[in-house]
Specification:
The complex is a heterodimer. Chain A is mainly β. Chain A is built from no helices and 11 strands. Classes of the chains: A mainly beta, B mainly beta.
Chain lengths: ~110, ~120
């Protein structure tokens, strides 16, 4: 089973609205990362949150981590059409070396 | 730096043919990863290298798949013989080692992905 699973699988919003997506995982982690993938492209790293952090911001991105619930959320504020992409969480599990396990992704469509 | 470079970008081949995918990681990176992405199975790690040495190949689906990293700037993923179920987008990614470069220069386990190779096996 996947270590990280995103929810929802797909999200459609209007430009200017906020987009929130969630990620759940199963085992203890060192950190959790979020990546974005535009259609036909490779993944691009957005933000990393360590297991001892609860919240992190980067521009219009806000990530939270709740290790007791083994979940994370990614919030994109004031969305733009250019934010249309798939978003993946990736977990760096303890004792997993440098392996990242990616979830299935959330497809976000921002309508202009 | 040009980022992670993969070639070819697209490959169409017939079942039974040998396929070789190539990757050039970012200069100075110590880790190299090969992933496969399909609609059904998502993004799967196939194998990763550290300093040119394979560390974990547990994701390699079967003996038809092999990967090599003869030097720090080049890696190949070979499928022989190819089958239609191998059709997917194959990504190469690299990352640096903060223990070697320092945390200010290198963010732990942040992976940089190439553009991918879209493989179609007919």
């Amino acid at each position: 089973s996947q270590q990280g699973e995103e929810d929802p699988q797909a999200l459609s919003i209007q430009e200017g609205e906020n987009a929130t997506m969630n990620c759940s995982y199963k085992t203890s982690i060192n950190n959790l990362q979020w990546y974005r993938q535009n259609s036909g492209r490779g993944l691009v790293h957005l933000i990393l949150i360590r297991s001892n952090e609860r919240e992190k911001h980067s521009g219009r991105l806000r990530v939270t981590l709740d290790t007791s619930k083994k979940s994370s959320s990614l919030l994109i504020t004031a969305s733009r059409a250019a934010d249309t992409a798939s978003y993946f969480c990736a977990t760096d599990a303890e004792a997993a070396g440098n392996k990242l396990t990616f979830g299935g992704g959330t497809r976000v469509l921002v309508k202009p | 730096d040009a980022g992670v470079i993969q070639s070819p970008r697209h490959e169409v081949t017939e079942m039974g043919q040998e396929v070789t995918l190539r990757c050039k990681p970012i200069s100075g990176h110590d880790y190299l990863f090969w992933y496969r992405q399909t609609m059904m199975r998502g993004l799967e790690l196939l194998i990763y290298f550290n300093n040119n040495v394979p560390i974990d190949d547990s994701g390699m689906p079967e003996d038809r798949f092999s990967a090599k990293m003869p030097n720090a700037s080049f890696s190949t993923l070979k499928i022989q013989p190819s089958e239609p179920r191998d059709s997917a987008v194959y990504f190469c990614a690299s990352s640096c080692d903060p223990l070697r470069l320092g945390a200010r220069i290198c963010s732990y386990n942040e992976q940089f992905f190439g553009p991918g190779t879209r493989l179609t096996v007919l």
